[in-house]
Amino acid sequence: MKELVEVIAKALVKNPEQVNVNETTDNSGTVYELHVAPEDMGKIIGKQGRIAKAIRTVVKAAATRENKRVMVEIL
């Protein structure tokens, strides 16, 4: 899952070397924290959050196949 988030983010941003994904686990499931360069934040979020929503949808679909609960936070 972590690699999936990383590959998607690196394909979208101008500075792929600054993409960082941290994985933490809590009671509700796994949380992936996506960190990008400040100038790439708009590209990851998209207009009205559409890109961010699409990233979350793809990751949740992949997690559902493995019977896991995941969340993607963009920081």
From TrEMBL:
- Where it mainly occurs, coarsely classed, is cytoplasm
Q: Does the keyword Electron transport apply?
A: no
InterPro entries, per database record? KH_dom-like_a/b, KH_sf_prok-type, KhpA
Q: Name one GO molecular function term.
A: RNA binding
Q: Which residues form a coiled coil?
A: none
What biological-process terms (Gene Ontology) are attached?
cell wall organization; peptidoglycan biosynthetic process; regulation of cell shape
Q: Name one Pfam family in it.
A: KH_KhpA-B
Q: Give the subcellular location.
A: Cytoplasm
Q: Which UniProt keywords apply?
A: Cell shape, Cell wall biogenesis/degradation, Chaperone, Cytoplasm, RNA-binding
Q: Which NCBIfam families match?
A: PRK00468.1 (NF001748)
Full protein name: RNA-binding protein KhpA
* Species per Swiss-Prot/TrEMBL record: Sporomusa termitida
Q: Which gene encodes it?
A: khpA
